[in-house]
Amino acid sequence: MSISYLPGKEPHPKETRRIYKNIFREGWDTSINCYLADGGYSELRKALSMEPKAVTDEVKKSGLRGRGGAGFPTGVKWTFIPPNNTKPVYLICNCDESEPGTYKDRYIVHQDPHQLIEGMIISCFAVGAHLGYIYMREEFPIAAEIMEKALQEARANNFLGKNILGSGFDLDIHVHRGAGAYICGEETSLINSLEGVRPYPRIKPPFFPAAIGLYGCPTIVNNVESLCQVKHVIQMGGEEFSKVGAQRSPGTRIIGVSGDVKRPGLYEIASGSITFGELLFDLCGGPKEGHEFKAVIPGGSSSKVMRTDVKYSVKNPDGTNGSISFFDIPLDLDSIAQHGSMAGSGAVIVMDDTRSMPWALNNLNHFYAHESCGQCTPCREGCPWMLKLTTRMLEGKASPKDVDLLLQVANQIEGKTVCAFGEAAAWPTQAMVLKFKDEFLALTDSFNDKLPHSTEAKEQRRYFTR
Amino acid sequence: MSHDHLNAIDATIAHIPSPGEQFFPPFSVTPELEAQVAELITHYPEGRQKSAILPILHIVQKQFGFINPASIEWTASQTGVSAAHVLGVVTFYPGLRQKCPGKFHFRICRTLSCAMSGAEDLFEVICRKTNIDPASINHHEPIGVSPCGMWSIEQVECLANCGNGPNVLVNDLLFDKVTPEKVDEIIAKYKQA
Fold first, then answer.
1. Does A450 or A320 have the greater pLDDT score?
2. Residue A233: inside a domain
3. Are A100 and B110 in contact (CB < 8 Å)?
4. Alpha-carbon A174 to chain mean position
5. Domain co-membership, A100 together with A55
6. Is A459 a domain residue?
7. Nearest to B55 among A137, A177, A198 (CB)
């Protein structure tokens, strides 16, 4: 059956549509009849006829890695449930998409809710969970309604509830809405939010949520896209799935491009199949008229910014050292990590030569200062401090010493917090300051070093004014 | 920020008057509300009704505009926790409000991708067109309400539609690629409603 898409929403020839097969599809809607007519829920039947252990093995074999940002192998995560466990197991779908730049899950939950539900049921069956939650961010109120309706339809068709399709497996799934906190995307924070307490992240190791999670029971938290991929793993078989895409991060990836390109948008590609150059010039149409690319944030705001005008060193196949330009780096987890950043959630933010890096960093620092949960001192105090420093730079009141101080503060946050938010907040600052130091220094004036900042200091040095 | 006197316990529970309150009913417990809450609690395992705090607060906020001290106490009684616990949850989340917004609440994304497509200017444009004083908005009072109570504005972090910025969420509906002209259309549309 050929699939046609709405005008202006057709996929680019270099795309591989798998998760996004039904997004902006002609005549597609969110109802279960539409999904069933397209062969929906047949993978669920297939999975239910297998042993739960076999489903997990299939996912492990596929090499599927989590799509939320950290890139942890999904099947391996599932096996962390203690083998002699007697407590109930829970599965939570993390739909708290709030990393700046990321907007891939929005379209799945708004346009193809049954794909997520099917993937979730299969995953629940594999890990033995009888209760699942979809943790939906507060900013998706319409999606929550769509999802509630889809769950109702699934219940009416016996895809949820008691004795699903005669397999003897019981499961119910509910939507739980967050309330606008970025930190709730962190899995232990999400669990605390679901428990109804202040969502501070929990300390780990030694106990990960797969051992002690929601209500003290084993809990698996997976991203929306990862759970949808599970359905395709079952459809294709693990072996077949692992053949498409980069060797160590197989499957497709959804890349969300935003910022200064002609055609920003979401592109689903086989991972590693194209380079940044192909993505930015072919799929996104290149820079805006009369401008050039300057910097790219390759995986959500927390990943380290990359300059487009420097060479990146690589090992040639014959063992010698070579170098490639930014535009030749392939889009897969390992290649991007090798060049000093991370592929994260696949959110590419592009900045052209009109953008000031201190301004961009100030914007991001505002985000992190606002979203720090306040549990760990380095992050709670450090993020507003970094914001103050960058604001001072933009106001022209900073001295060159402040640039070093900014880096020092960022270094003191990294690795000194309970959750990964500390790193997420420190990396943008570290990378921006190290890679665009001249821009920061250009905004400073060594005379400012002599000027007081606080009221008390101003009072003491009231004669020394400009 | 943490040492500020505005973060003291009395300040966090005090009722902040707002002109938007005329468009929402005052908080009262109706049988429908009780039924909704009873149904919500069944979504969670036996004895875990604490999990329902967030969904209950969402219902309260949607129906009555904001979360007042009485509704905090009522939520606590429904879920078997102390009012201080519920207050702790309320003050954590930016999405839960203790000040009533206007009848139509604009939430403008201010994070990088939207800021690059002009969200800062858009914020000023909307403030001007809805007669809201941007100087009244700060870290402690993130919501600005127009004197007529019809409109309110808030700058929020990423709304997750980064490719189509600037994004504005009006009550539950998202508007993308918003230009000053489009703001006129949105305001005209809601004025009629």
1. A320
2. yes
3. no
4. 22
5. yes
6. no
7. A177
Distance CA B144, CA B188 (A): 20
Q: Are residues A326 and A276 in the same domain?
A: yes
Chain A: residue whose CA lies nearest to B88: A198
**CA A107, A174, B106, A390 torsion-angle sign:** negative
Alpha-carbon gap, residue A301 to A364, rounded angstroms: 7
Residue A449 has pLDDT above 90, yes or no: no
In a domain, A458, yes or no: no
A199 → closest Cβ in B92, B159, B174: B92
CA dihedral A281, A287, A290, A293 (to 10 degrees): -100
Q: What is the mean pLDDT of residues A99-118?
A: 93
Q: Quick check: A422 pLDDT over 80?
A: yes
The tokens describing A183, both together, are: 């930190």
Select from B91, B98, B157, B176 the residue whose CB has the most chain A CBs within 10 Å, as the one to mutate to test that interface.
Answer: B157
**Is 80 exceeded by the pLDDT of residue A455?**
no
Please name the amino acid found at residue A1. M
Provide the chain A residues 6-35 that lie in CB contact (below 8 A) with chain B. Answer: none
For residue B95, give the nearest of A180, A349, A371 by CB distance: A180
Q: Chain B partners of A371 at a C-beta cutoff of 8 Å?
A: 157
Question: Is residue A163 predicted with pLDDT exceeding 70?
Answer: yes
Cα nearest neighbour of B158 on chain A:
A100
Cβ pair A100:B43 closer than 8 A: no
In this complex, do A182 and B54 lie within 8 Å of one another by their Cβ atoms?
A: no
The answer on A322 and A234 residing in a single domain is no
- The answer to whether the CB of B110 falls within 8 A of the CB of A359 is no
Is it the case that residue B2 has pLDDT exceeding 60? no
| Whether residue A153 is found in the same domain as residue A177 | yes
Predicted TM-score (pTM) of the model is: 0.93
Q: Are residues A363 and A341 located together in one domain of the fold? A: no
The domains of chain B, with CATH numbers, are 3-92 (1.10.10), 104-191 (3.40.30.10)
Q: Last residue of a domain, which of A243, A271, A287? A: A243
- CA-nearest residue to B85 within chain A is A197
Of B45, B160, B162, the CB nearest to A139: B160
pLDDT at B157 exceeding the cut of 60 = yes
pLDDT at position B4 is 65
Does pLDDT of B167 surpass 80?
yes
CA-to-CA distance for A342 and A365, rounded, in angstroms?
19
Residue of A142, A160, A195, A258 to mutate for B, most B C-beta atoms under 10 A: A258
**Pairwise CB contact (< 8 Å): A176 & B110:** no
Residue B10 has pLDDT above 70, yes or no: no
A285 found inside a domain = yes
Q: pLDDT tens-digit profile of A44-92? A: 999 999 999 999 999 999 999 998 888 899 999 999 999 999 999 999 9
For residue A113, the enclosing domain spans 32-243
- My answer on whether A47 and A195 are in the same domain is yes
Indicate the Cα dihedral angle A199, A202, A207, A213, nearest 10°.
Answer: -10
Measure the CA–CA gap between A231 and A241, rounded to whole angstroms. Answer: 11
CATH of the domain at A433: 1.20.1440.230
Q: Comparing C-alpha atoms, which of A220, A221, A238 is closest to residue A229?
A: A238
Tokens of A251: 């499957």
**Which residue does chain B place closest to A190, by CA atoms?**
B51
Q: Do A102 and B51 touch (CB under 8 A)?
A: no
Domain co-membership, A341 together with A401: no
Domain boundary among A243, A277, A309: A243
> What domain count does chain A have?
3
A454 pLDDT tier (thresholds 50, 70, 90): confident
> In CATH, what number is assigned to the domain containing residue A288?
3.10.20.600
Residues A169, A89 share a domain:
yes
